[in-house]
Amino acid sequence: MINIAVLGSTGSIGQNALEVARQFPDKFKVTALSTNSNIESIVKQANEFLPKFVCVGDKRFFGKLSGLPRNTKLLFGEQGLSDLLEERSISKVLLSISGSAALVPLLKAVKEGKSIALANKEALVMAGHLVMKQVEKTKASILPVDSEQSAIWQCLHGEDAHKLKHVYLTASGGPFLKASRSEIRRASLKKVLRHPRWKMGKKITVDSATLINKGLELLEAMFLFNLTSSQVKILIHPQALVHSMVEFIDGVVMAQISATDMRIPIQYALSYPERLKNLFPSVDFYKLKQLDFDKPDFNKFPALKLAYLAAEELGTMPCVLNAANEVCVEEFLKGRIKFIAITKIIGKVLDKHKNKLDFNLEDVLHSDAWARNQARLFIERERL
Ligand code: MG
Fold first, then answer.
1. pLDDT of 342 over the 80 cut
2. What's the rounded Cα separation, in Å, for the pair 231 and 254?
3. Is 300 found in the same domain as 157?
4. Which of 70, 168, 239, 276 is most buried when burial is the number of CB atoms within 10 A of its CB?
5. C-alpha 211 – ligand 1 centre gap (Å)
6. What is the CATH number of the domain that holds 107?
7. Using only C-alpha atoms, what is the Rg of the chain?
């Protein structure tokens, strides 16, 4: 039995993880659940899985939590997460808290030597070097959940990482793959949120429309697999079945192919090193007519250029890219700025940033706050 903590259990990945746990009641015991503010949903989840711990964003919600099971211990905020991560019985942590809020819990889980199924990419983008350095010092391991990183990870099993030449990071291309630039300029919120392949949370869906999601994944891959930016090639692949590929120095390419269903990489990260038989969809190659690949259009999707720029410079640039993006996406979702303003503002904030190549956690948090402030200042000028 694997005792798992699902942190960020009410989001899209968290719900899918619980779906996996539901299919394997003899394999996984859900020991902890957490949400920032989705109280109704976590009470329901807790009554189904009867976890030892539930952690919610803050004490304001206390009154709404009377429906929790009797033996579930209630915790609050960052401190609550930190306390439950100290719990010895929890061996696996699925980290699906969204955005930069995952950084502190991630560092704590690493410090505690946990096996971490990591669905959040922002924390790695912000502080990848610091996180990976800590991973080396502790017994922690990071098992990627993001479908592309899971693919790279699986392709590298049993291989000598030094013999790796390139990684092909595949991208479905999002809702605007075929759109003209003027269509993108006029993009409505509704269109942005209509992703052709994946059903995901709102933040990542917007990120997939600007393609900055692929830029964040470029950085994520660099930190996870110790790659340079020039080793990672982004490849448009609209069918989203090849989740990524690796090419070795002898020209051999390994691809990981599976149905477009997040439960598959989630399950693998949770059950690793074991593979478990499941009832999720699989690829029918007889029905599949073709697989397409194309070069991404960096002019149509300038967020990719910005991500490569941050990936070449590293230091605190990736953190700034991520923070400016988070603020812009929030404002876009509230209808306060246009879709194209997201990338434009990120570019301006990056331009203004004095990069710090040698950095600690304090520098990361400082750069994050600085970038959010700067983004807000630029947003004031772009407000609709
Ligand atoms: Mg992905």
1. yes
2. 15
3. yes
4. 168
5. 11
6. 3.40.50.720
7. 20
Spatial separation of the C-alpha atoms in residues 17 and 37, rounded to whole Å: 19
Instruction: Measure 12 CA to ligand 1 centroid, in angstroms.
Output: 13
Instruction: Tell whether 184 is covered by a domain.
Output: yes
Quick one: 37 and 107 in the same domain?
yes
- Name the nearest CA neighbour of 377 among 334, 328, 343: 328
Q: The sheet that has 28-35: what strands, in order across it?
A: 73-76, 53-56, 28-35, 2-7, 92-95, 115-118, 141-144
Residue-wise pLDDT tens digits, 37-61 = 999 999 999 999 999 999 999 999 9
> What is the distance in A from the centroid of ligand 1 to the CA of 148?
5
3-state secondary structure at position 193: coil
CA-CA distance, 60 to 185, in Å (whole number)? 41
pTM of structure: 0.96
Range of the domain at 308: 146-260+280-314
> How far is the centre of ligand 1, averaged over its atoms, from the C-alpha of 121 (Å)?
9
Distance 147 CA to ligand 1 centre (A): 5
The DSSP element (H or E) to which 257 belongs, if any, is strand 253-257
